[in-house]
Structure formats: structure tokens, C-alpha cells
Specification:
The protein is mainly β. The chain has one domain. It contains 2 helices and 15 strands. The strands form 4 sheets. The protein has a 5-stranded antiparallel beta sheet with strand order 5-4-8-6-7, with no helix packed on it. The chain has a 4-stranded antiparallel beta sheet with strand order 14-13-1-15, with no helix packed on it. A 4-stranded antiparallel beta sheet has the order 9-12-10-11.
Length: 188
């Protein structure tokens, strides 16, 4: 990811040059035409946890959807959405069933992990760890270290795709090119 002159982390799941997770900005998928396979309009195969910033309402939410058509937003010209897998940080009893239903790859294996987490004030954390861990260990670390109330979030693509670019740290995963990243405005 170091080739991109922006602060950010890897986005959702992909295969080759096709996005397999929702990645939408103002009702337009980031990798092609609306409704096209691999464009970022769909969470491929399964309804999955999708982090949504509703710009008109000024709030973040996690919605379990299959496509951009299902997103609930106040203004379809003023939002962004990033697909992943629901963490269910507020629902201790539901998270394991959710990652099974949403088919989080390699949940019980030691892998690099990444995710997006927000709190009730709207603060958003982009999280990547080079430490190999299970999904449960990653989620537990998020609960123990991310401050704030009303936290919620999603797992993003992990393992070799877990990448971050910032002045303070650069994590290259396995150096594979990622199809999509989440960039932080104002960085670099």
C-alpha cells in the first residue's frame, strides 16, 4: 500500500481486481458500474456487516446487507459504505453466530486482522494488527483498547491484505496489491 500517497488501511474482500465487499461513495461503487459484479455494489454471496456513514444524518451504523440497494440512508447522494463482517461489539451473545452467518474467512486461525470501529460520538478507528490472532482475540483486543461508549464495528479483509499506510507506521501485510483502501482525509 505504500505506493498510494495517502493515510489509510486496506478495505474489504476482493479477488483479483474484483471487489467482493460493498464499497460505495455517494451511491456510486468505487470499482465500476452500479450493479456490476466486482464493482463494490455487492457483498458477494452473503448479506454482511457493512459500515455506513450517513452524512445527512451525521451518524455511523452497521447494516447487514447484500447490496447497495438495501442500505438505509437519509440522502443517497451523501453517504459512504464499506462492507466487511459484523463484530457485534454491543451483542456479546450474537457475535459468534454473526461471523458464521456472514462467513468470516479463517475466523479460528491465527491471521493478521483489520477492522473499522466507531463509538457513539462518531469517532472512527481504522485498526490493523500485524500480530497473528483469531477473530475472537482481535475482537477482544478491540473491546479492551478502543475507548468510548456504544462501540460497534466490522472486520475487514485480513491476513496478507492487512495493510496500513501512515507516517507513524507502515504495515505491508504480504505486500499484495489491494483493490480498495479506506483513505483518511487530510493525511499526506
Amino acid at each position: 500500500m505504500r505506493r498510494v500517497p495517502a493515510y489509510g488501511i486496506n478495505g474489504g474482500f476482493f479477488y483479483g481486481t474484483d471487489l467482493l465487499s460493498v464499497a460505495i461513495m455517494n451511491d456510486l461503487p468505487v470499482n465500476g458500474d452500479k450493479g456490476a459484479y466486482g464493482s463494490g455494489w455487492f457483498n458477494a454471496k452473503y448479506a454482511r456487516g457493512t459500515l455506513v456513514w450517513d452524512g445527512a444524518a451525521g451518524r455511523l451504523s452497521v447494516q447487514t446487507v447484500s447490496s447497495g440497494d438495501e442500505l438505509s440512508v437519509s440522502d443517497r447522494s451523501h453517504y459512504w459504505a464499506q462492507g466487511g463482517i459484523s463484530m457485534n461489539l454491543q451483542q456479546e451473545g450474537l457475535w459468534a453466530a454473526a461471523i458464521a452467518a456472514e462467513h468470516l474467512p479463517y475466523a479460528d486461525e491465527q491471521r493478521m486482522r483489520s477492522g473499522l470501529v466507531y463509538d457513539e460520538t462518531g469517532k472512527l478507528w481504522l485498526i490493523v494488527t500485524p500480530t497473528l490472532c483469531t477473530a475472537e482475540e482481535f475482537r477482544t483486543a478491540v473491546l479492551q483498547t478502543v475507548p468510548g461508549n456504544g462501540r460497534e464495528g466490522i472486520f475487514l479483509d485480513g491476513d496478507g491484505s492487512s495493510q496500513m499506510n501512515a507516517d507513524e507506521a507502515v504495515l505491508t501485510g504480504d505486500s499484495r496489491p489491494v483493490v480498495q483502501m479506506i483513505a483518511v482525509a487530510g493525511g499526506k
